[in-house]
Amino acid sequence: MVHRRARRDRDLCVVGVRTLWRTVGDGEFFCPECGGDRNFRRRTGRRRIVVLGLPVLPRGPVAPIVECAACGSRYGTEVLDHPTTIRFSAMLRDAVHTVALAVLAAGGTEATAVRQVAVGAVRAAGFADCSEDQLLALIEALAADTGRLPGACGERDGLDPCGTALAIELHEALEPLAPHLAPTGREAILLQGARIAVADGPYRPAERAVLETVGRALMICPDDTARLLAATRAAF
């Protein structure tokens, strides 16, 4: 009854301004109001002067919005920059996997302890079926693919200590994820890589270079990166 009365009063308004919306797309997004993944409608609108409930004169467009199909909340289109829960989980899983491979490529895979820690980290991140053989096969494939990983980390041919291609791999996996993680979450990814590196002893220069690259890609300041690496080494 209340809603019908409000609608009737609006329609009886002599002169006013109303926005007419048009749906131009849809998809799935993370709705802050619902706190989970929901369907959305992407909508554009135009303001019109309304006389006796009838739109007559245009007043120009309004900014596009994203409307939750479940709760009806409306947001600016920047809300779509936040990954869905499923996408976020995949990004986190891939980030840990990439860091593990980078550390192994830098420090070698000869030590059993290193391989075991790496496999444990990757499994915990979501690749439950990961095995040592799979990681070793990926390391060999990456080492053979000179366009993406020109060998183990180290100073060569004027590249930075981590290797330009390997640094790109890390930045591509970590930079899109970093803004959506709390500081403790970013540090946790760095620490997982550090634990792999120290599983067989002190950091090698190439391992440290990789971990410093990880810290930069995760937006961790160099002093905090150094502190975390030192704490991890002391713990082992």
UniProtKB/TrEMBL annotation:
It comes from the Bacteria. Signal peptide: none annotated. InterPro entries: DjlA_N (IPR007791), TerB-like (IPR029024). SUPFAM superfamilies: TerB-like. Transmembrane segments: none annotated. Gene3D superfamilies: TerB-like (1.10.3680.10). Residues 123-228 form the Co-chaperone DjlA N-terminal domain. This is Co-chaperone DjlA N-terminal domain-containing protein. It comes from Streptomyces violaceusniger. The lineage of its organism: Bacteria, Bacillati, Actinomycetota, Actinomycetes, Kitasatosporales.
